[in-house]
């Protein structure tokens, strides 16, 4: 019944009522804020470039990219609090409040809802935070703020370049690998990285142009993946069963 919006430039989280079209600000003051901590009233707490959102029950998780943190908005109480990230910019794992992140951007929940995956853009990494009693941050792919590339293989040696989007697809994590202008897939069972289906998809546009700096990706259903192709001002639609793709909107 609602669309939740990460209103990045206004440093706010908004809600659009689909029935009435009414827009409500749930968190943020319109000005850039400092680091998140203990729960505070959302409407009087300044956020910093919220980039993406994921909903689990009454918890709305958000990437507070400007302070290198993940936050959570409690829709029942209206409070916002830190989920992960000390506020320092780095890539260190461990207890969520002590771990360091680097411009977290795209978010995606695991199928069981117990893990939140995120694209940690400045470290060219894909990481996760457990959503249990003692949340912890774990790096899946990525090693440092200045370590990047286009390298496939096992999680330890693979490299991405400033990914902005991530989406859960069964046992795969699909990644909008922005500065490589590519889609990558991380196999959580095999612990390996590859180009999306080996690059074997066929384009069905009248004029086919390469994807450029994709910034978002979503698994719409079992056989439909949408990619925000930011550099070309369009959305691409992929059909894995047909190994085809085309421009869906521009």
Concise structural overview:
With 250 residues, the protein is mostly beta strands. Helices cover 0% and strands 48% of the residues. The chain has no helices and 23 strands.
Set down the secondary structure blueprint.
Layout: E1 2-7, E2 12-17, E3 23-27, E4 40-41, E5 50-56, E6 59-64, E7 69-74, E8 79-84, E9 94-95, E10 104-109, E11 115-120, E12 125-130, E13 136-141, E14 153-154, E15 165-169, E16 172-177, E17 182-187, E18 192-195, E19 202-203, E20 216-221, E21 224-229, E22 234-239, E23 244-249
Parallel strand pairs: 19-23
Antiparallel strand pairs: 1-2, 2-3, 4-8, 5-6, 6-7, 7-8, 9-13, 10-11, 11-12, 12-13, 14-18, 15-16, 16-17, 17-18, 20-21, 21-22, 22-23
The rounded Rg comes to: 18 Å
How are strands sequenced across the largest beta sheet?
Answer: 4-8-7-6-5
For the largest beta-sheet, the strand count, sense and barrel status come to: 5 strands, antiparallel
User: What would the principal axes of the Cα set say about the shape?
Assistant: globular
* Helix-strand makeup class: mainly beta
What is the count of helical runs?
Answer: 0
Uncertain segments of ≥5 residues (pLDDT<50)? none
Mean pLDDT: 96
Which features does this protein show?
250 residues; mainly beta; five-stranded antiparallel sheet; 0% helix
Plain-language structure description:
- The protein is an all-beta fold.
- It has no helices and 23 strands.
- It has strands at 2-7, 12-17, 23-27, 40-41, 50-56, 59-64, 69-74, 79-84, 94-95, 104-109, 115-120, 125-130, 136-141, 153-154, 165-169, 172-177, 182-187, 192-195, 202-203, 216-221, 224-229, 234-239, 244-249.
- The protein has a five-stranded antiparallel sheet with strand order 4-8-7-6-5, with no helix packed on it. Strands 9-13-12-11-10 form a five-stranded antiparallel sheet, with no helix packed on it.
- It is globular.
- It starts with a strand and ends with a strand.
